[in-house]
Batch of 2 targets.
Target 1
Amino acid sequence: LTGFLVSGNRLYMVEFTQLAAAYSKVNLGQGFPDFAPPKFVQEAFCHALNEGPMMHQYTRAFGHVPLVKSLAKFFSRVIGHEIDPLEDILVTVGAYQALFSAFQALINEGDEVIIVEPFFDCYQPMVKMAGGQPVYIPLRPVSDGSVLSSGDWVLSPEELASKFTPRTKALVINTPNNPLGKVYKTEELQMIADLCIKHDVLVISDEVYEWLTYDGAKHVKIASLPGMWERTITIGSGGKTFSATGWKVGWAISSGHIIKHMKTIHQNTVYHCATPAQEAVARGFEREYEVFGTPESYFQQLPAMLHHKKNKLASLLKSVGLKPIMPEGGYFMTADFSSINCDDPSSKDEAKDFRFVKWLIKEKGLATIPVSAFYSPEHGKEFDKYIRFCFVKEEATLDAAAEILKKWS
Ligand code: PMP
Ligand code: GLN
């Protein structure tokens, strides 16, 4: 049998997660917290399980009503647009399924989709599965050698403008970005928005790390810019929001005329996401609505905790000669390993960063992810001197990573 649309794709996250399970003592690879979600959402989940028989049954296909209501209430305030809970929101099985439903519903055979690199690795196969053609544009460091922060990685407005054609249907951005941690500034988003309005293009904005920003960086929703609500699908994740990635509750928020097409995909594939998990996320947002902007808010507490972990990891990496790029957001840090001279001679046909990551897992027991996995094959080679570390980890995990790195240096 031949002709499968995505049969040639490698599933990097799956491959490296398997390697990590087999060899690593310390896993700073896949992005998930190794600590518990906050008490208030754990209690909300337990409460939901004991709330009566209906909490164990099907709920509304497009989103449990308490959840869409709490999301609408919360995000209307953030976006500055009155969100209709029943028309403008689709609850999905994680942000993954929101992305999948968006591509399936909105991309037709031959449509072009502009993807900003580095990108979360499922965008490319999802675009292809929908029959679309990915068109890539890399963020580039402003000047090589002195790159200190993810903010130094930028899009060239001229290069971006050159990617639009009459076939361009959508553009995908991810802010804060996985893996770089870039948080797009308003001016950068405005430049993207202007081009999308000019060419009548949709924006799929993956904002799963929206609450995680550091050192004064501010997350801005592209949907909140003038003229963008009607053409933006904003994607979020309960798993990332409340440190409960296994719950797999995600959502897409957009104008009802866009969401209705995604609903068709959703109701004919997945139907709905687990009821008690939706109830727990709803209660989490209700609570956050009340304490928003105060030190009690988890959306302040989690970034404050991660700020310390980020700095700890950065000093650690520097102490062994790696050159970290300080993330402005998210829970990953990329680092340049070119000054380190270690290699796995068995696999010279693979990219440098893939070889380095395999060596680090197998020989040192430390799992990370190669950054060229977040690039198209045509651009991966330019960026194969970086690896990604996840820092949403217990102090003990980071200390164990420190032990490995100290022994190695
Ligand atoms: N987008 C990005 C940028 C991610 O890093 C991830 C990984 N969690 C997802 C989407 C998927 O999120 P979820 O676990 O809610 O499906
Ligand atoms: N988003 C997480 C990461 O980038 C996990 C996703 C996955 O394992 N597929 O590591």
Target 2
Amino acid sequence: MNKGKLLVFSAPSGSGKTTIVRHLLAQPELNLEFSISAATREPRGQEIDGKDYYFMSIDDFKKHIKAEDFIEWEEVYRDNFYGTLKSEVERIWAQGKNVIFDIDVAGGLRIKKKFPDETLAVFVKPPSVDELKRRLKERSTESDDKINMRIAKAHVELATAPQFDVIIKNYDLDVAKQEAYELVKEFIKK
Ligand code: 5GP
């Protein structure tokens, strides 16, 4: 199979990486397809199974771990498992496309390690942890408890930024989108 590129976008939850990833997906010349992760949490808002995530039970997720179906997986939050299925990358590469990932920091670095030549690992940095908290509250899709859990994790995640190939500072969303576009455009040429 012809290998495409792997564009990893990782960041603390609320940094704006999902918005950036959506923006890149809307640019046909980048030839990108979103890697749909498996996840054990409940769908939020308008999320659709098989489009945003492959939602599954913890039992089913564990069966996939046992069968070694994942390229990487993480218990991102307690009892909330997320993972990238091998079949997902194969599906996208078979279409002759590049894969774009919106995944957590540990998973992103693992993909980079497994596919060093094909991967561009990008860390999206929020202006500050306070701003992150404000954005998560504004989104108001989760309880305060869950928001606090995400903030606690953000501190740990921010410390891993130097291990990524590039850091995009998301202080101004339009600037960050443009920067991401240029980076991806350049990388997929290689
Ligand atoms: P959310 O619940 O907000 O959709 O995602 C929570 C976190 O899990 C985010 O940081 C998201 O990027 C990450 N995530 C989503 N899919 C995967 C995956 O396949 N693997 C890993 N390691 N993290 C993921």
